[in-house]
Amino acid sequence: MVRLTSFAAALVLFAAAAEAQITPCNGVQDPGAKILLDEIVASTPGAANLLQPLASRLDAGLLQVQTELGIDLNLKVLPCANRKPTGPGDFTRSIVDQLNVRNVVMEIWGVTTEIKDAQGRPFHEASVGYVLVPVRLNELQAQRPPGAFVIPYRAPASDPAADLLRLVDQSGRLAAYATLAAGSRALRAAQDAAAGRRPRNATEDEWASARKRLCAAQALFTSLKPPAAPSDMQLADYARSLAAQTMVGAKADQRYSGSLKVQPENLPCPSGR
Amino acid sequence: MANSVADPPGTSVLPSTLHVDASVALTSPPALAPESRKKKHPIEYLQALTPLIIAAVGWFVTDAVRSGFERQRLQLSNVTEMRDLLLKLVGPSVTLQEAQAAASTLSAFGEPAVAPLVTALGSADDVRTPPIEDALRAIGLNHPQAVCDPLVQILKRPSGRFTWLLHRSAIRIVGDVDCANARPTLQAFKTSLTNGTMKTYDPASDDWVTVPPEAAQLLNTDLDRALATP
Predict the structure, then answer these.
(1) pLDDT digits over A182-214, tens only?
(2) Is B208 exposed, middle or buried (0-12, 13-18, 19+ CB in 10 A)?
(3) What distance in Å separates residue B196's CA from the closest CA in chain A?
(4) Chain A partners of B95 at a C-beta cutoff of 8 Å?
(5) A17: helix, coil or strand?
(6) Smallest Cα–Cα separation from B138: which of B97, B163, B173?
């Protein structure tokens, strides 16, 4: 019975994925950093209508995390109806490059179906995909770490809106991913400014800002509830190594005179949130 | 000859063999004196050539008119056939695969497709930009001047209503296609970007704003690549 149920769920997920496609998203050209929230393909009727409320709730959740961490990611969640990527393979170099130039730091998509277990209790069988745009760009150049991946999800069904929120947020993973993506982007900006490839931001300490975000991302990954996905372990290591790179970069930047200049090069991130 | 002619009555009998000695002189008529020749009037020559001239002019005019009609009919046909593809390409629900197919088919029209593709590129997003760039690159390989002229013109006019994203695409295509005489324009663009004097069109405010630092960096990267091409 369990096998039959799993097979049926797999069939539904496959059928949903087969008609999936990347389509344009209104608002992607708008200025400012953003997270694209694609349509969550669901067998539940009316799930598509929950996209806008879901985006608002994710916005609120991210704002809360930023307040707790004392960082300003300045991100907004943009709902993209009818946009349904098939998987990480859709995010080729040219597509990720186009997302990057439009200030998209992350994209989320998902496929979910509500099925019943052997006892007849409803639960969700889902796959949620994440693309961390700056990390994916790095992955396409250096083959590490994964910048686009899918996390399977299985949980009892209750209120559809709350279920979708839990599905996308994945116990706080969303905040960790968003912070890492924003930190990775900030580090690249600081490195480019130091190398003279772009103008320096006079109003912000770019090295310190990048480090703060990357250390926050590392802390968020550490505080994730088990079981950790394999990609999470790699991303936590990646956040740590990038945070270390900010120290090295700041010390080597001859025109930089900010707070990191006087810190030891091997200074670890502060532990805990 | 014997018995071949009836013998007239009362004549003596002729010998059975008759020999006739004769000679034939072939002479040409006496040459006319030059002054005696009748000189033809040029009008006569013209009259003789008139049918040929009428035929040639008729052929030329008919061919030119027919060619003109055919060119117009071809343009109209191109527009009609490209219309559906363009509608698909710029439509709100186009998928990545459909955009690739439409742009690729449009590129098969060659030069007539350049103008609508460049126009579509002006408002293209993350899904449409790569296929349109590919299509223009494909046309540019066979007709470089048709692609280079409008794109270089766009790069020459930063004060036009062109976003930095369109400038970036133009730089990338001009760098990929062998655009003759594009180097001074690219150099001038780079200088203006480095000086910080470059402004870009912002559709949201309908105004020209300083190029954001991250955009300047991306433009610089593509400019360096385009200028590195020998």
Answers:
(1) 999 999 989 988 888 777 877 888 899 999 999
(2) middle
(3) 9
(4) 21-23
(5) helix
(6) B173
B93–A22 C-beta distance less than 8 A: no
Query: What is the pLDDT at residue B138?
Result: 96
Mean pLDDT, 10 residues at a time, chain B of 230 residues: 49 65 72 63 82 87 82 75 91 90 94 94 92 96 94 90 94 91 93 87 86 87 86
User: Do the Cβ atoms of B207 and B174 come closer than 8 Å?
Assistant: no
Nearest 10 degrees: Cα torsion A37, A212, A64, A74: -50
Say what the pLDDT of residue B34 is.
59
A contact test, residue of B126, B168, B217 with most A CBs within 10 A: B126
Chain B nearest CA to A116, separation (Å): 33
Which domains are present in chain A? 2-170 (3.40.50), 182-262 (no CATH)
Residue B195 touches partner A, C-beta closer than 8 Å: no
**Res A96 pLDDT > 90:** yes
Cβ distance B125 to A31 less than 8 Å, yes or no, reads: no
Q: Which helix (H) or strand (E) holds A131?
A: strand A122-132
Q: Do A23 and B126 touch (CB under 8 A)?
A: no
Q: What is the pLDDT of residues A220-264, one digit of tens each?
A: 888 887 767 778 888 999 999 999 999 999 999 988 888 888 888
**B194 touching chain A per CB within 8 A:** no
DSSP string, chain B: -TTSSPPPTTPPPPPSS----------PPPPPPGGGSPPPPHHHHHHHHHHHHHHHHHHHHHHHHHHHHHHHHHHHHHHHHHHHHHHHHHSTT--HHHHHHHHHHHHTT-GGGHHHHHHHHHT--TTTHHHHHHHHHHHHHH-HHHHHHHHHHHHH-TTSS--HHHHHHHHHHHHHTT-TT-HHHHHHHHHHHHHT--EEEETTTTEEEEPPHHHHHHHHHHHHHHHH--
pTM given for the model: 0.75
pLDDT tens digits, residue range A102-112? 999 999 988 87
Q: CA neighbours within 13 Å on the CB side: how many for B78?
A: 17
Q: How many CB atoms lie within 10 A of CB B146?
A: 18
Instruction: Report yes or no: A198 and B213 within 8 Å, Cβ to Cβ.
Output: yes
Nearest by CB to B129, from A25, A30, A98: name it.
A98
Which residue, among A108, A76, A99, A105, has the nearest Cα to B127 in the 3D structure?
A99
Total residue length of chain B: 230
The one-letter amino acid at B190:
K
- Angle of the A93-101 helix axis to the A133-142 helix axis, nearest 10: 140
Instruction: For Cα atoms A135, A89, A86, give the angle at the middle one, nearest 5 degrees.
Output: 115
Distance of CA A228 to the CA centre of its chain: 15
